[in-house]
Design a protein that fits this description.
heterodimer; A: 156 residues; mainly alpha; Sufe protein. Chain: A; 3-stranded antiparallel beta sheet; 48% helix; B: alpha/beta; Oxidized Rhodanese, domain 1; 5-stranded parallel beta sheet; 10 strands
Chain lengths: 156, 302
């Protein structure tokens, strides 16, 4: 049953459901503050990617230079790495949410994340739909990299 | 009471130096009664990461636009917004922002639709303030309400609608988008999301002057002589021309509107805020592709 007033967590992993509920637990104004916390909390790139944007994929849907790299380990666990400039905190915040929500999932679970996850955070009013597109673009590219990694693993 | 103007010699060369202030002038006057500093950025969270002490945020997406119709606030909405930001009708407003002040110029243009008497840009914007190592804070002021009057928006002088542009075809027009958007090679800004335009190209007769040509390396506006060289000598525009500027949604062209109107003293410049997202989706309007302005079709021969 779809809940029309509260947060929509249908089909989400417990971690993603928790994030959606966290955003909906506060007022629209405070959702921006929460997003800023995710921006501040985005971890730096690991040493092997630092200074190597060519090893990552640029998220062209975003208004700022944002790069993403997904690595799947031997047990199909996803390791997500994002790079986004300090002067683009909204984009960094989106990256922080996806990093927190998807890191450590299996590749298959990443592919099962509903396409409208980003729209469920309740940021449409405070951020505007246009800006949210960048986040959906990030999720799309994360999934594409997982699919590519799965395909490469089958070939080997 | 309006604050005195910044007497900086570079600003004094412009047609309306009272529309700009330098970072040094502003730093000395923070906290002065009658002054409100407004930050307006592309990124809605940037203000929250640190801003000029005492400044308030105005966001174009969520605060300057009507939430339903593709239009700006009405007079009552603007009065409410001004009150919430602690701005009175006689307040001196200084606006600054990211990306060479392009969103700040957009906000200034909207303030002008409501005839706010004293609204200025911070030359160099957010970038210059930070580069100079000036103070930032995360403290958000809680301004008291003001009794800002309800002033109806006057679109006639500085705003153009699609029908105005159709009537204007053959007159002076400036397309301020990137060269690739102008030729029709692409329909959105490099590195920016596609915003859903069905046709690429430009309005026939429009000259290409990408907006950023007006900005110097440090984000300030170029000196007047350099601006004249671009818009007047190179493009042949004249200060008494009737000019329409447009871009994709009207933000970058607000920047050019500011340059032509306030820095070069053009007397009639309108910003077509429907811009390419309207024109490029409209049925049976003329479009030119390629590097040349193109031929304006005969009137009535659609």
């Amino acid at each position: 049953m779809v809940n029309l007033t509260g947060p929509d967590t249908e089909g989400l992993s417990p971690k993603l459901a928790e994030i959606v509920e966290e955003f909906h637990a506060v007022s629209e104004r405070d959702r921006l503050k929460l997003l800023l916390e995710y921006s501040d909390g985005l971890p730096p790139l690991p040493a092997h990617l630092e200074g190597h944007p060519e090893l990552m994929e640029q998220v062209e849907e975003c208004q700022s230079p944002v790069f993403v790299s997904v690595e799947l380990d031997g047990e199909d666990r996803a390791h997500l790495h994002f790079s986004a400039p300090q002067e683009a905190p909204t984009t960094r915040g989106f990256a922080g949410v996806l990093r927190e929500g998807l890191h450590g999932m299996s590749g298959k679970e990443v592919l099962d994340v509903p396409e409208d996850f980003c729209a469920r955070l309740g940021l449409m009013q405070a951020i505007s739909p246009l800006r949210l597109r960048g986040m959906t673009g990030m999720l799309g590219r994360v999934k594409r990299q997982v699919r590519a990694a799965h395909a490469a693993a089958q070939v080997q | 009471m309006a604050l005195p103007h910044d007497p900086d010699p570079k600003l004094a060369e412009y047609a309306h130096p009272e529309r700009l202030v330098t970072t040094g002038w502003l730093a000395e006057r923070l906290g002065t009664p009658g002054l409100v500093v407004v930050e307006s950025d592309e990124d809605v969270l940037l203000y929250d990461t640190g801003h000029i002490p005492g400044s308030v945020k105005v966001d174009w997406h969520t605060e300057l636009n009507d939430t339903v119709t593709r239009d700006y606030l009405d007079g009552a909405g603007f009065a409410r917004l001004m009150s919430a930001k602690g701005i009175g009708r006689d307040t001196t407003v200084v606006i600054y922002g990211d990306k060479n002040n392009w969103w700040a110029a957009y906000a200034l243009w909207v303030f002008t639709l409501f005839g706010h008497p004293d609204v200025r840009l911070l030359d160099g914007g957010r970038t210059k303030w930070i580069e100079e190592g000036r103070e930032l804070t995360r403290d958000v002021p809680q301004p008291g309400p003001t009794d800002y009057p309800v002033v109806e928006r006057d679109d006639s002088a500085i705003r153009a609608f699609k029908d105005d542009v159709l009537t204007h075809l053959g007159g002076a027009m400036v397309d301020v988008r990137s060269p690739q958007e102008y030729t029709g090679e692409r329909t959105h800004m490099p590195d920016y999301p596609q915003e859903g335009t069905l046709r690429g190209g430009h309005i026939p007769g429009a000259q290409s002057v990408p907006w950023a040509r007006a900005a110097a390396e440090d984000g300030t506006f170029k000196p007047r002589a350099e601006l004249e060289a671009i818009y007047q000598q190179e493009k042949g525009l004249s200060p008494d021309d009737d000019v329409i500027a447009y871009c994709r949604i009207g933000e970058r062209s607000s920047h050019t509107w500011f340059v032509l109107t306030h820095l070069l003293g053009f007397s009639k410049v309108r910003n077509y805020d429907g811009s390419w997202t309207e024109w490029g989706n409209t049925v049976r309007v003329p479009i030119a592709v390629g590097e040349e302005p193109g031929t304006v079709p005969a009137k009535g021969g659609k």
